[in-house]
Amino acid sequence: MSAVRSQNVEHSLDYGAKPDYGNEPGYGGNVPDYGAKPDYGNEPDYKPQEETHGLIPKEYRPLVWMCLVGFFVTFLADFAARGAWEAYAAHLATTWTAPVCSNFELMFYVNITMGVVYGIVSLLLLIPGCDKMFYSLYWKPETFPESKTMGRAIIRQMALLLLGINIAQCVAPSNTGVGVVALCINVMVTWNFVLVSCFDHYSGVRYWNVGGLSIRMADFYFVSSIVMTALFAVGLRRTNAFMGQWKDDEQHEQTWLFYLNCFCGINYMIVGILNVLPIYNQWFMSFYFVDMYKARSPVAFFARNGACLIMGMAAASLIAPGNPGVGIVYFFVHVLLVFFFLAAFCGVHGEIKNKPLWVMWLLSAVLFSVLYGYSLSRLDNCAADDTTCGTYRNWMDQPWNTYKNGGADDSKWTNCGN
């Protein structure tokens, strides 16, 4: 028997091996006629089948990828769940102890760096003229929204949210509550930049040709958000921020700040989720604006980014509702949002709908600015023997650069030692 002609394995799986009859007796060396190949001529709709050489047929490859990704995610989830349970069990067996003051150094510098850098970004998006210049670094200039439109309002709102967080970071960079907020918002914002960098979800992204390579400036924020998440996690762990109680179960009531953070956290989390999810985000915004942004547009990116900031703040207020640093962030954010809602009635945001809803948000921003300011001041002036808030007394006396000036003998703030 003559040798069978060797063929590519993948080609055999895809198309089947063609038999070699050779000079076998009874065949006379002739290959049987399987019929004439159809002549498609110049039919415009005909596309010849693309030849592939994979062991897995092309139509099954998405299924295989989904199975592999599902297995990988399941494996990581199991690994993370075990780690989380071990950390929780260790937390129950550990009591909070005052950290060494020098351990606040990393969190101080990370807060200052993020507060200054992203604060400049926020101001550039708020200043007329500079906003388009900065926008054009990341998105195609022709996609920049016109003045007095919903798109410009969405960009301003996200910038004000970010600016409020940045001001709190610069005012109290050593406060663990501010660090918790920064950690949570970096975790949430990372997912929006995953859509930009990994899935090319949004249209209108601008590419820069550098040395023959096409570079997206937005990719730098994707990397920085991951780095910031890691740095804040390490910085907060060094200050024993994760060892504190969520609330004191021995108390009959909690502080005003605790209730405010829980209330805002629950309500703002719902608002954030609605504005992150597709379809629901446009449904929510349709109550406030006449025109609507397009899905996957640059404005949709800013809208989802703002929603991620809101969800991060809400998560922080539910994780550490008794921490004054969380209240500092909420205070500055609400103060800035007062000007945003006032601008709507001045025509800055263009044509709006349902003005009573805008009035409601304006009044709530004013109300919560006052409530957060009062609750923070009340904590600082609380009597030392008060069982509800005595432990927070003189919290405003924490040194700005705690890693240098904390633990002084004449300091009223004693939550770290040398």
Description:
This protein has 418 residues and is mostly helical. The protein has a domain of 289 residues. Helix content is 56%, strand content 2%. The protein contains 13 helices and 2 strands; from the N terminus they run ααααααββααααααα. Strands 1-2 form a two-stranded antiparallel ribbon. A hairpin with a 2-residue loop joins strand 1 and strand 2. Helix 5 runs parallel beside helix 10, helix 6 runs antiparallel to helix 7 and helix 8 runs antiparallel to helix 10.
Question: How is this structure best summarized?
Answer:
With 418 residues, the protein is mainly α. It is built from 13 helices and two strands.
Essential attributes:
418 residues; mainly alpha; two-stranded antiparallel ribbon; 2 strands; 56% helix; globular; disordered N terminus
Strand order of the largest sheet: 1-2
Order of helices and strands: HHHHHHEEHHHHHHH
Q: Give the overall shape, derived from the CA principal axes.
A: globular
Beta fraction: under 5%
Computed Rg: 30 Å
Low-confidence stretches: 1-17
Helix-and-strand structural type: mainly alpha
**How many DSSP-defined strands?**
2
Helix content: 55-70%
